[in-house]
């Protein structure tokens, strides 16, 4: 599948691995792919994000992703469902971080048993969510009748896969519908 990735999409994948490694993680997640997309300039995805007004709010997205990681990757809907059962996720996070340090619930496998997707080379492996985004990006390209997978397909894939990454994007105005509108049928950015 990677032979179908454009130069920009490959750069996103490499950037995601770098973000994961810099954070001390062993498993690349969808959030690492999004962070790598936010780093891109002069690509279809970066133009789409700029057209949707995200260019000025990248730091807010990074902060929201970090908060999600601190909650062990739980989405707001999951946090609310647990609250309905009388479980206060914020309180749990506070207690765990008090005992084990900030970010202890990040779930990146850095302090785990090595089964979190680490490769023998020490480079982070891809987790279920990241693999799902990569697979979905192929479906997105095929649905748009495009031969190659670009970084815009990775971004589109993130908006349709349920979870914290899609939630953070939606909170910042980036949904599948808004991206489709901006990318248009021919791939040219249009005003939203």
TrEMBL record:
Keywords: Repeat. Residues 2-192 form the Clp R domain. Pfam families: Clp_N. Residues 107-128 are annotated as: Disordered. InterPro entries: Clp_N_dom_sf, Clp_R_N. This is Peptidase. It comes from Streptomyces antibioticus.
């Amino acid at each position: 599948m990677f032979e179908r990735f454009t130069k920009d999409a490959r750069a996103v994948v490499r950037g995601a691995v770098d973000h994961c490694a810099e954070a001390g993680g062993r498993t690349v997640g969808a959030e690492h792919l999004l962070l790598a997309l936010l780093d891109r300039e002069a690509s279809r995805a970066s133009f789409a994000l700029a057209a949707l007004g995200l260019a000025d709010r990248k730091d807010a997205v990074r902060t929201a992703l970090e908060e999600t990681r601190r909650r062990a990757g739980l989405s707001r809907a999951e946090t609310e469902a647990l609250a309905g059962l009388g479980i206060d996720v914020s309180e749990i996070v506070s207690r765990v971080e008090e005992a084990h340090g900030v970010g202890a619930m990040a779930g990146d496998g850095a302090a785990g048993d090595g089964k979190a997707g680490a490769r023998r080379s020490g480079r982070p492996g891809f987790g279920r969510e990241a693999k799902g985004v990569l697979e979905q990006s192929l479906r997105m390209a095929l649905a748009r009748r495009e031969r190659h997978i670009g970084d815009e397909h990775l971004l589109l894939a993130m908006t349709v896969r349920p979870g914290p990454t899609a939630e953070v994007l939606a909170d910042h105005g980036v949904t599948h519908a808004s991206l489709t509108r901006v990318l248009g049928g021919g791939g040219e950015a249009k005003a939203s």
